[in-house]
Amino acid sequence: MTTEVVSPSLIPTLPGHTYVSEDIFRAEQEHIFEEMWFCAVRTADLEKAGSFKTVQIGRESVLINRTRKGEVRAFYNICRHRGVKLCMEESGEANRSFQCPYHAWTYDLEGKLIAAPNLTKMPDIDRNEYGLVKVHVREYMGYVWVCLADEPPSFEEDVMGAIEERLGDLRAVDDYDIANLSLGRRIKYDVKANWKLIIENFMECYHCATIHPELTEVLPEFADGLAAQYFVGHGAEFGDDIKGFTIDGSEGLDRIPGVGDDQDRRYYAVTIKPNVFVNLVPDHVIIHRMFPLAADHTIVECDWLYLPSVVESGKDVSASVELFHRVNEQDFDACERCQPAMGSKIYAKGGVLVPSEHHIEAFHSWVTSKIADVPADS
Amino acid sequence: MTTEVVSPSLIPTLPGHTYVSEDIFRAEQEHIFEEMWFCAVRTADLEKAGSFKTVQIGRESVLINRTRKGEVRAFYNICRHRGVKLCMEESGEANRSFQCPYHAWTYDLEGKLIAAPNLTKMPDIDRNEYGLVKVHVREYMGYVWVCLADEPPSFEEDVMGAIEERLGDLRAVDDYDIANLSLGRRIKYDVKANWKLIIENFMECYHCATIHPELTEVLPEFADGLAAQYFVGHGAEFGDDIKGFTIDGSEGLDRIPGVGDDQDRRYYAVTIKPNVFVNLVPDHVIIHRMFPLAADHTIVECDWLYLPSVVESGKDVSASVELFHRVNEQDFDACERCQPAMGSKIYAKGGVLVPSEHHIEAFHSWVTSKIADVPADS
Amino acid sequence: MTTEVVSPSLIPTLPGHTYVSEDIFRAEQEHIFEEMWFCAVRTADLEKAGSFKTVQIGRESVLINRTRKGEVRAFYNICRHRGVKLCMEESGEANRSFQCPYHAWTYDLEGKLIAAPNLTKMPDIDRNEYGLVKVHVREYMGYVWVCLADEPPSFEEDVMGAIEERLGDLRAVDDYDIANLSLGRRIKYDVKANWKLIIENFMECYHCATIHPELTEVLPEFADGLAAQYFVGHGAEFGDDIKGFTIDGSEGLDRIPGVGDDQDRRYYAVTIKPNVFVNLVPDHVIIHRMFPLAADHTIVECDWLYLPSVVESGKDVSASVELFHRVNEQDFDACERCQPAMGSKIYAKGGVLVPSEHHIEAFHSWVTSKIADVPADS
Question: Which residues does C206 contact at the CB level (< 8 Å), separation at least 6?
Fold first, then answer.
C-alpha cells in the first residue's frame, strides 16, 4: 500500500482528515467564514423597512434587516442583556424595532437600544454601546455580503477580484445586470458533505461525462472533462442543435439585453470563495450560496434569476430550472458519497488530481494557508 | 465591539461558555450535583415497603426505596457483581428484595447481599461488603434528599440554611406543613437549556412584566421587576381584586391552617441550591425539582401540593395549577431561547445584569467557587 | 464504599471505563479489529464471479468479491482517485468491474485500474499501483476472513489455535464439515452494548440458570453455572429426555455424518477472538460474527447452518433456530443492561468474577495487552 504520488499526471488532494475533523472545521469557521466576506441573503428578499432575514455564518446567527432609510444593516442576532436569540424565524417583518421576548429590551432598526423596562432609571447605560453588535455589510450583484471580522478584508480584492480573475473583467456583473434580475425559483439542498468537496466538485468537469448526461448534451465540450473555469474568460459553448440552457435543449427565456454576442450561447461559471458559485447563461443567472454547518454538513441555497419581465409574466421556467437542479442533485450525491471515505486510513494522505483537475490545487493551497494562520495555542 | 461593563447599573453575568461547555458541566456534575444534598423524590411516592424510585443524579442512577421497617434507603442502582443496572423503571414495587436479572445476585431492601447462585460455596464473600453501595439520605419537607459524597456537607447549613436565609426562619416549613400536604398535580418539563439559566430565571422578576401577564395580574408588584426573593422574608402581595393564586384570580382552595395572617394573600419563593424551588401561597405549595442531564438539557419536575382534604375530595385544582404551569412554560421558553446564543463570540464574556438582577451575582460566585475547586489536572 | 477485592472467590473485571471510552474503543479498532484476522462474510454468499459484499471492519469499509477465476479478493471500498465509497450496498453483483460513480475510474475484479476518462493520455499512471488497495484474505470453515494489517498475524496460531485450544484439536472443523453446510437461517441483532460484554457473556454460564430456562432444559449441566468452554474438549450433554437441540427438546434435523458418537448429543462452544463464536451440535452449527461499531454499539450476525439436504428439502428448522435465537435475545438484553452502569464511579475499578467466571480473566489480560501496545503518543 502506497499513496506516494510519483506520476506527473497526478498531484495529491488535501489529506482526508481535513474533510472530517471538527477541529479543522472550527478553524475554517473562525478564519474563513467568520473573517471573510460571506454572501448572506438576496437584497430583494429584504423588501421594505423592517424586513429581516437570519442566517448562520460560521458559529454565529446574523440578523440582517432593512432600515427605515432603506439601507441594509446586519447584527449579531443576540440581545445585549442576557443573550436571547432575538429573531428565531429565517425571515419576517419587524415593525419599527426588534424587541427581546425575555425582558423587552428594544432596539431600533439601526440596532440602537431605544427602550427597556426601567431604562430611564439607568441613565448611565449608553444606548449605542448597548445596541446590537454590528457586522460589516456590502451590497453587490443583488446580494448582501456580510463580514464578521473586526477589520474586513478588501471586498474589491476578494469578491470582485475573484470575478476578474475568472472572467478577465467585471463586465459580466454589468452585462448580465444581475442586481436587477428577479427570482424565478429558489431551491435549498441539504448536503451531508464537507463544503470543500462541494467547491472542488464545482471547480472541475472531469466528472461531467459520468454524472451529468443532460449538461454535457447542452455543453458538448464538457464531455472532454475541461471545466468552464479552466481558462480565463472562456465560456462553454452550447451544442449546435441546442436552442437554450434547458433540460432538453429547448428554447430558453428572453435573453438578458446586455449580454453580448460573444457571450451568447455560452455558459460561464465563477467560484467566489468561500461560499458562492455564479453561473451565467444568456437568459438567466444561477447563484449558489453555501452555508457550512458542520464538517460533514452543508446547506446550499440556489437561486435562478431571470429578467423581471419573464418572472412577472409568469412564463414557465421549469425546463430552465430543471437542468441545473438535476446537475445540483448529481453533484451533491457525488459529494455525499465521498464524505464517508475521508476518514479511512488509506485516504490519510488524500486522493489524486488528474491534469484537468490540477487547478483545484490552488484552492487547496488557499485553504491550507488560511488555516495555517491559526496559532498553535488556539 | 466591546463588552466591558462600565455602567454602574450593569454587572456581568457568567461567561457564555459556562452554559455550553460539556467540561464545565462535568465539573458541575462532579462538584455540585454529586457532592451536595440533592432533592430526589417525594417521600409519599414511596408508599410502602418495597416501593422504589430511580433517579438520575449527576452521572449516576440512584435507587431509592422504602424498607420493611418503613425507612427510606438509597443506593447506586448497580449490581455489585457485573454492573447490571438493577432497576430499569422510574418507579415500581419490589417484593422483599432486588434481584439482578443477569446472574440473580439478590439484595434485601437494606441493600445487603442475601442470595446468589453458589453463594454458599463462596463463604469468603462478605454480604455487607458486597451489598449495594449506599448513598446518604435525609427526609425533609416531604421529600427524600440524597447525597453521593462520601462525606456529605451539612444538611442544616445547605438546605435549611437556604430557607432561613430567604425567609428569615424555618417557620414556613412548619406553618405550611409541607410534609403533610398531598399531591394534586405533577408535571414534568423537558427543557433544552442549561440548569443555571433556569435558576437565574427563577431568581429575578425583571422579566415578569414581559412574559408573565397572568402572574403579574395576580401579583401586581411583580410588574416592577423586583422578585419575591429580593428582600429577606418578603412575600409578594396579591392584587386587591384577586381572590386566589389562580390563573384568573378566582377563589383558590382551602387555606392551609398553619398559614398566619401575615402570610395570607402572599406568594413566597425560595431557591435551594442546587436543584429546588419552593413556592408558598396560602392554599398550596409548589415544588420544582431540576434534573440536569447535559449542558443544554434539564428535566424539571413540578409538584402542586394541597391539603389532603382538598385532594381527597376531588376538588378541581385546575385554575390553581394552570397559573404556575403557564409561568413554567413561559420561563422555560425564555431559557431555551437564551441557550443557542451562549456560544457566540460576542457572548464570550457573558451578558449584563440590571440592578433588579444584581443579586444573581451571588449565585454566579457560588457556581464559580464550586468549580474552582476542580484541580487543573482533573 | 470499597471495591478492593479481598475474597479469594472473587477477582476483578476490567475497569468500567474500558467499556465506554471512545478512546479505548479507537485503540481496539486500531490494534484488534484492524490488525487481526476478522471473520467477515460467509463464502457461499459470494455465489459467482462479481458477487460482492461490503462490511465494516474497525473504521474501514471493506469490499469483498469473487473474481472471474472463482477466487475471493478483498479491498478497501474506496476509489483511488477522489475517495468515493465504491459500493454502497451491503451486497450485490458487479458485472466485470467496479466503476466509480463519480469520475468513472474502473477496476477489474482483481482490483486493477482498467479504465478512466483520459487514462490513455496519462501513461505514467501505473494501473496496479492505482488499483484498489488490497486487504489480506483467508477462507476457512466456509467463511472469508480478512486482515487489514500490512503484516497479518499467523492465521494458524490465532484462528485455528483458538479452536485447538478449546476443543483439543481441529477435528471438529472436519467432522462437522462446516464449510459444506448450507445456510438455514440468518438473524442480525443490533446490540447497544460494548463488544467485550458480549464476549464475556458468551464465555460464562453462571448466568444460564437465571436467563436461559430453555437452554438449561436442553443442557441440564448448564444450570450449575459451568460453561461448555470451561474444560478443554468438553461438550455439554443433552438431558436424558431431550431428543434434539430445539426450543422444546423435540427431534432435531438430520445428523451431520462426520459427527462421532462421542460428539453426539453434545453442545460445544468456541470463542475465536476477536469476533466469532462457533456453536456445534450434532445436526447444525451456529456461527456468530460480531461487528463492533462504537463503544456502546455492536451488530451481531448469526448463521444457522445445516446439511445441504436439510435446507434443500425445505424441512422446518424453526424449533431448532428458535432455541439459540432466544438465547441470543436473552444474552444481548443482559449485555445492554450492563452497558449503562459501566461509566458509574462505583464501577470505576470494575465488578467481580466468581470462580466459574475466573477464566474470563484471560480474555481481559489479552485485551489489556493488545491496547497496552499503543504507544503513549498515538
Answer: B103, B117, B118, C225, C227, C354, C356, C357
Q: Hey, are the CB atoms on A341 and C80 less than 8 Å from each other?
A: no
ipTM of the complex: 0.93
Helices within chain C (DSSP H only): 22-28, 155, 161-167, 171-175, 195-203, 208-211, 213-218, 308-313, 318-338, 360-372
Instruction: Look at residue C376 and tell me whether its pLDDT is greater than 70.
Output: no
Instruction: Report the chain B residue with the minimal C-alpha distance to residue A78.
Output: B341
> What is the mean predicted confidence (pLDDT) over B337-350?
96
Which residues from chain A sit within 8 angstroms of residue C118, using beta carbons? 206, 225, 354-356
d(CA A335, CA A297): 11
Closest CA to B328 of B189, B158, B128, B130: B189
- C19-55: b (≥16 Cβ within 10 Å) or e: bbbeebbebbbbbbbbbbbbbbbbbbbbeebbbbbbb
Contacts with B116 from chain C: Cβ below 8 Å: 354
Say if B5 is an interface residue toward chain A (CB within 8 Å): no
Distance from CA of A241 to the nearest CA of C (A): 25
Q: How far is CA B124 from CA B131, B166, C356, in A?
A: 14, 53, 15
Q: Tell me how crowded residue B314 is: count the other CB atoms within 10 A of its CB.
A: 7
Which chain A positions have a beta carbon within 8 Å of B194's beta carbon? none
**Chain A residues inside the 8 Å CB shell of B9:** 122, 124-125
User: pTM for this one?
Assistant: 0.93
- How many CB atoms sit inside 10 A of residue A182's CB? 15
CA distance A277 to A212: 18
Is A60's Cβ below 8 Å from some Cβ in B? yes
What gap in Å lies between CA B323 and CA A142, rounded to an integer? Answer: 50
What is the average per-residue pLDDT within C25-47?
97
CA–CA separation, B119 and B104 (whole Å): 11
Closest Cβ–Cβ partner in C2, C8, C351 for B124:
C8
CATH class of C37-140: mainly beta
Predicted confidence at residue C164, as pLDDT, reads: 95
Whether the per-residue pLDDT at B374 is higher than 80: the answer is no
Among C85, C125, C134, whose Cβ lies nearest the Cβ of A7?
C125
Chain A residue at shortest CA distance from C88: A337
Residue extents of the structural domains in chain C: 37-140, 181-370
How far, in Å, CA of A14 to CA of A7, rounded? 17
d(CA A217, CA A172): 25
CATH 3.30.70.100 is the classification of domain A181-370: no
pLDDT at C28 over 60: yes
Q: pLDDT over 90 for what percent of chain C? A: 92
Q: Is the Cβ pair B9, A122 closer than 8 Å?
A: yes
First to last CA, chain A: 35
User: Given a cut of 60, is residue A1 above it in pLDDT?
Assistant: no
Hey, what's the cell of B64? 431509592
Task: Quote the minimal CA–CA distance from A271 to chain C in Å.
Answer: 20
Residue indicated by cell numbers 478497501: C76
| CB A180 within 8 Å of CB A311 | no
